[in-house]
Specification:
The complex is a heterodimer of chains A (about 110) and B (about 120).
Chain A: E1 3-7, E2 10-14, E3 19-26, E4 30-38, E5 45-50, E6 56-59, E7 62-66, E8 70-75, E9 84-92, E10 100-101, E11 105-110
Parallel strand pairs in A: 2-11
Antiparallel strand pairs in A: 1-3, 3-8, 4-5, 4-9, 6-7, 7-8, 9-10, 9-11
Chain B: E1 4-7, E2 10-13, E3 19-25, E4 32-38, E5 44-51, E6 57-58, E7 67-73, E8 76-81, E9 90-97, E10 108-110, E11 114-118
Parallel strand pairs in B: 2-11
Antiparallel strand pairs in B: 1-3, 3-8, 4-5, 4-9, 5-6, 7-8, 9-10, 9-11
The chains are: A mainly beta (about 110), B mainly beta (about 120).
């Protein structure tokens, strides 16, 4: 069964304190892994797509990496405006266009 | 800027009312749109895949007579929650792929969701 697990469930960081969020997945053939940011009361906002192990994508203070079993979202020197829930989703080869979402990591960056 | 628009953003209504939620792709045509439901502090649960010009594909456990989906044009899908009850209260979100290939591995772009509260 395809599964996506994110950890930690919640993370509190001081401003400037770098850390990483984890997304572990088990799918029968990965077509793509997607990272989203979701603010309270809003829909998810697309951040990155990763397609193959070893791939990395970077945007401002965020960097996403991918292995055969997991993905990391690294946050360097976070700011309070980075506070949000970060969602990971995977797309498998045998399930059409369906996305499987993890339960997310709620990040709070304290000034 | 936003590529998927969802309306209304919030609905509060009495039990037994039917509620329609619209999802529009703003600058592209979407043959497929998706409808999700999200409970507090939980992940997105796919309810159904909306296919332009044909019937929607519902996930297991989702009542098709309760959640009516219509995808009459390439830019608009609607979700109607029929005879809504308090247990239907939730956050409903739609999404769409920008490209129209049958098996896209492009990201889904999401609307801002609709908070439905049934009294």
């Amino acid at each position: 069964e395809d599964q996506v697990t994110q950890s930690p469930e919640a993370l509190r960081l001081q401003e400037g304190e770098s850390s990483s969020l984890n997304c572990s997945y088990t799918v029968s053939g990965l077509r793509g892994l997607f990272w989203y940011r979701q603010d309270p009361g809003k829909g998810p906002e697309f951040l990155f797509t990763l397609y193959s192990a070893g791939e990395e994508k970077e945007k401002e203070r965020l960097k996403a990496t991918l292995t055969k079993k997991e993905s990391f979202l690294h946050i360097t020197a976070p700011k309070p405006e980075d506070s949000a829930t970060y969602l990971c989703a995977v797309q498998a080869r045998d399930t059409g266009n369906q996305f499987y979402f993890g339960t997310g990591t709620s990040l709070t960056v304290i000034p | 800027g936003a590529v998927v628009s969802q309306h209304p953003s919030r609905v509060i209504c009495k039990s037994g009312t039917s509620v329609k939620i619209e999802c529009r792709s703003l600058d592209f045509q979407a043959t497929t749109m998706f409808w999700y439901r999200q409970f507090p502090k939980q992940s997105l649960m796919l309810m159904a895949t909306s296919n332009e010009g044909s019937k929607a594909t519902y996930e297991q456990g989702v009542e098709k007579d309760k959640f009516l989906i219509n995808h009459a044009s390439l830019t608009l899908s609607t979700l109607t929650v029929t005879s809504a009850h308090p247990e239907d209260s939730s956050f409903y979100i739609c999404s769409a792929h920008r490209d129209r290939t049958p098996l896209s591995n492009q990201p889904q772009h999401f609307g801002d969701g609709t908070r439905l509260s049934i009294l």
